[in-house]
Amino acid sequence: xxxxxxxxxxxxxxxxxxxxxxxxxxxxxxxxxxxxxxxxxxxxxxxxxxxxxxxxxxxxxxxxxxxxxxx
Length: 71
Hints:
The chain is α+β, with helices and mostly antiparallel strands. It contains three helices and three strands; from the N terminus they run βαββαα. A three-stranded mixed β-sheet has the order 1-2-3.
């Protein structure tokens, strides 16, 4: 089995969080790639989230109405 792609980021502000989320979205997906990836963000300034956030980027083919029932 193949491991899912993980990336780690350090973000200093909520604008960093937005930029990283957008960057992950903009990467898109291509045929032959996994249709899901994760990014773990360490955000020391974000006290409400306990300093960590997970960005889960997933292709719509995995979570559409038909495929979601197969999960």
